[in-house]
């Protein structure tokens, strides 16, 4: 009866976690949180079948549902969600989605139809009740899980743990714990400890989703919250923070002071104006979402990046699923500082739910002519 009660509680927590993650997905739409919702649903369906199994002994159907949920769908989709959350390279994401289909469809079909040993009891049955081929497919899927999670951790550590980095690291570590607990229970069963460990797995998954969906407390996040609340009219007022003096401006003041103090020109000539053109190909129906994110980041750049001379986003009338963003920077240093800004990093992360392909063209200005009012018209400050 203890195992029955623990399994029932774990299934109940699973349904609560699924509902919460689904709500997060509606509040902050994105591939990662949708993947975590699928993972929670898969685990919960498996645990719901396990409630019947521990009450009346497991059979073929309850055994299959349990392992499809906790050995396959749960770990694979929570790990893929972690990858989508942490990795920003479009090519890497596209590759992960190809492998996701391979490690979902084929194992799912085999686990659903392959014969199983009928020697079951009333405790969580381990994966070894399957024959060799189903076990090999699950092993391959779980190796895929480990690769995704390790890659996500490496991507976050390489970006640095300042600011949002610590939160991102915590999210992926919680997902790593959730995946490992689910895999261990699936492979070993563990009797009455099985539902206890699954409670831990669901709690870690739920916590990761809550942390990832929590509104951020910086100026760009206020803009992003406006996006979801449809209150963009007050964006400029909310971003008007006199304490947000850009690092680049301070550095220029310091350089000018140094020149005044010692006299003469700087030791090295300034680098040329730099430019970048980025062409985004959007997913079907994502034009409005992308345009709102672009409007938010343009407002941030205008307010806080004096050495980004021009930053503009354009639609393409002949190609409704394309957007073009181009930027002109005072020099290479200005470009580097732009790319490190929190609102730019966040913009890149949020694009995952809207963009399917990105092409970047870097430019170095050779010559130009422009009307004096052009910059003021496109980048009002």
Automatic annotation (TrEMBL):
Annotated TM spans: 6-24, 31-56, 68-86, 98-116, 136-157, 169-190
Biased segments, Acidic residues type: 232-244
SUPFAM superfamilies registered for this protein in UniProt: Dimeric alpha+beta barrel (SSF54909)
InterPro entries, sorted: Dimeric_a/b-barrel
Organism domain of life: Bacteria
Region (Disordered): 232-269
Residue ranges of coiled coil: none
Keyword terms: Membrane, Transmembrane, Transmembrane helix
Name of the protein in its database record: Quinol monooxygenase YgiN
Organism: Nocardiopsis alba
């Amino acid at each position: 009866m203890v195992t029955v009660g623990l399994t029932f509680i774990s299934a109940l927590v699973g349904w609560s976690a699924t509902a919460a993650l689904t709500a997060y997905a509606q509040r902050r739409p994105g591939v990662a949180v949708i993947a975590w919702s699928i993972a929670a649903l898969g685990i919960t369906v498996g645990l719901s079948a396990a409630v019947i199994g521990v009450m009346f002994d497991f059979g073929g159907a309850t055994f299959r549902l349990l392992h499809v949920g906790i050995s396959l769908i749960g770990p694979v989709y929570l790990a893929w969600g972690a990858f989508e959350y942490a990795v920003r390279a479009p090519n890497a994401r596209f590759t992960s989605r190809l492998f996701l289909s391979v490690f979902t469809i084929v194992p799912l079909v085999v686990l659903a139809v392959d014969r199983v040993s009928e020697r079951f009891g009333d405790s969580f049955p381990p994966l070894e009740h399957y024959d060799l081929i189903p076990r090999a497919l699950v092993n391959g899927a779980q190796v895929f899980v480990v690769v995704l999670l390790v890659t996500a951790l490496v991507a976050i550590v390489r970006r640095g743990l300042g600011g949002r980095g610590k939160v991102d690291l915590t999210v992926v570590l919680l997902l790593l714990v959730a995946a490992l607990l689910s895999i261990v229970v699936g492979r070993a069963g563990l009797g009455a400890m099985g539902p206890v460990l699954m409670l831990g797995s669901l709690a870690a998954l739920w916590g990761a989703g809550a942390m990832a969906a929590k509104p951020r407390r910086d100026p760009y996040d206020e803009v992003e919250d406006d996006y979801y609340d449809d209150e963009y009219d007050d964006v400029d007022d909310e971003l008007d923070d006199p304490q947000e003096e850009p690092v680049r401006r301070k550095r220029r003041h310091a350089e000018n002071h140094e020149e005044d103090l010692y006299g003469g020109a700087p030791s090295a000539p300034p680098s040329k104006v730099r430019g970048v053109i980025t062409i985004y190909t959007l997913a079907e129906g994502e034009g409005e979402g992308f345009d709102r994110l672009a409007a938010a980041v343009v407002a941030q750049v205008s307010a806080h990046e004096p050495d980004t001379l021009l930053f503009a986003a354009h639609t393409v009338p002949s190609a409704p699923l394309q957007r073009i963003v181009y930027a002109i920077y005072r020099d290479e240093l200005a470009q580097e500082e732009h790319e490190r800004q929190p609102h730019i990093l966040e913009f890149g992360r949020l694009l995952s739910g809207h963009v399917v392909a990105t092409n970047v063209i870097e430019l170095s200005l050779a010559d130009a002519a422009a009307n004096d009012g052009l910059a003021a018209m496109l980048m009002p400050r």
